[in-house]
Amino acid sequence: MDTPSPQRGEWSSKVGFILAAAGSAIGLGNIWRFPYVAGENGGGAFLLLYIFFVVLIGLPYMFGELALGRSVQKNPVGAIEAIKPGSAWRFVGLLGVLTGVGILSFYGVIAGWTFGYIFKIAIGKTTGFGEFISNPYLVIFLFGVFMVITTLIVHGGVEAGIERWSKILMPMFFILLIGLIVYANTLEGSAKGLTFYLKPDFSKINGSVALAALGQAFFSLSLGMGLMITYGSYVSKKDNLISSGIFVALFDTIIAFFGGLIIFPALFAMNQNPDAGPTLVFVVFPKLFTQMPGGLLVGTLFFILLSVAALTSTISLLEVPVAYMVDEKHSPRKKIVWAVAGFTFLIGIPSALSQGASDFFSNFGLFPERLSGADFLSHMSFVFGDFSLAFGALLLSIFVGWVWGVDKASEEIEQGSPSFANSKKFWGFMIKYFIPATIFIILLNLFGLFG
Q1: % helix / strand / coil in the chain, to the nearest 5?
Q2: What is the pTM of this model?
Q3: DSSP line for 64-93
């Protein structure tokens, strides 16, 4: 078995790992996607289902990824190759690496929008989202700026780069979040939003709502592309993977929950519809900020919050392919991080141009409408952000449960977590049977097999 590269590093503390891993999970999905999906699916009832699925599906799966990475201290490809050398299973790890690059290529574009909106709102220009994202020079510039910031942090390495900045960005994120929650809930009429969000209407629960909650719970934890394998590979053998995983899931769920505490009170205070969909943050909210007392300052802080959330995710997305190149190709981190980022930027340009700047990429139309929007960014989101994540997670859960085996995986988890022995049988059942079956249902739902 190959020894880990001396360039790969290790978390200096458990807190550093938890903040970095939580940061990877906490992103635009928590503040942007979660509230509008909750709004479209009945508010409080969706919230309860979401929390239930995080605990039942997300956490047990996460333990498997963390254990796999820590067991051999390798990236997704290296970890699988070390356990099952020379087999086709290594391509599952490679799929995870490619998924990280694919997601970063379009996620970085959206992150650039949030960064641009900080200045757009600050100067009081709150209209024209379509005009904003169809300006080719502006969106490519913002995408490039966000990629450079991300690359500079990952360039610093695991401890001096990712961990150090996670310890700065995550507290900053929480302070902004709490401030905006307090503000939103002092607005007149905000109580109606809290009622919609926190008082479950169980008549709203049906198969569609359950599947939406299941998909959101799974994807919000950054599972399925080997990211937690990579971050787990930097964890000390003495650390408790169970408590660390619980803290990561807890922080991620709290942030999604807090996002709703901002969005819904503000929407109801301004008599807006909670099911406005993906345009909620970039179209509806800027209009709200113009009507609020001190709205431009609040709006600026809100988009700073979104940008910080996006940055904690883009850092982790870039680290997955970088770790692969450092481990498997023995590339020097300081150089390869710029090469990977540059490649990701180039393949992200079509996504940046697909919102009106280029007719070809805006009306790409490769997939039917029921799977994806016509634009290239929506296509990338479906392929990498939806299908590839779910398919990779299905294969990884099978690998952990059946190929590596429950006994060996449990043995790894028990290092630093001896009490896990009491839950070993339950976890083994989940990772071998229940979780793969559940992910398979998510995949079928992606293709509209449940209507």
Answers
A1: 75, 0, 25
A2: 0.89
A3: HHHHHHHHHT--HHHHHHHHSTTSTTHHHH
Per-residue pLDDT at 127: 65
For 153, phi then psi, to 5°, come to: -70, -45
340, 321 Cβ separation under 8 angstroms:
yes
275-285 pLDDT, tens digit per residue, is 666 667 787 77
Distance CA 142, CA 303 (A): 14
For residue 208, the tally of other CB atoms under 10 A from its CB is 13
CA dihedral of 422, 425, 426, 428, whole degrees rounded to 10: 130
Cα dihedral value 435, 441, 445, 447, nearest 10: 100
Rounded distance between C-alpha atoms, residue 16 and residue 119, angstroms = 31
Q: Residue 451: which residues within 8 A CB-CB, separation 6 or more? A: 208
In this model, does residue 255 exceed pLDDT 70?
yes
**Distance from C-alpha of 381 to C-alpha of 139, rounded to nearest angstrom:** 18
Ramachandran quadrant class, 292 (left: phi over 0; alpha: psi -120 to 50; beta: rest): beta
Residue 91 in tokens: 């391509």
Average pLDDT over residues 145-158: 91
Q: What is the mean pLDDT of residues 91-115?
A: 95
Rounded average pLDDT over 73-89: 94
Please name the residue that has the structure tokens 């599947």.
Answer: 211
Residues 197 and 260 sit within 8 Å (Cβ to Cβ): yes
Q: How far apart are CA 178 and CA 23, in angstroms?
A: 17
What does the pLDDT read at residue 431?
A: 96
pLDDT at 238 over 80: yes
Task: Match 């959206």 to its residue by tokens.
Answer: 110
Place of tokens 């200096």: 12
Pair 151, 338: CB distance under 8 Å = yes
Terminus-to-terminus CA distance in the chain, angstroms? Answer: 48
Select 14-446's CATH number: 1.10.3470, 1.20.1740, 1.10.287, 1.10.1740.
Answer: 1.20.1740
Ranges 31-45, 88-102, 210-224, most confident = 88-102
Tokens standing for 424? Answer: 């070993």
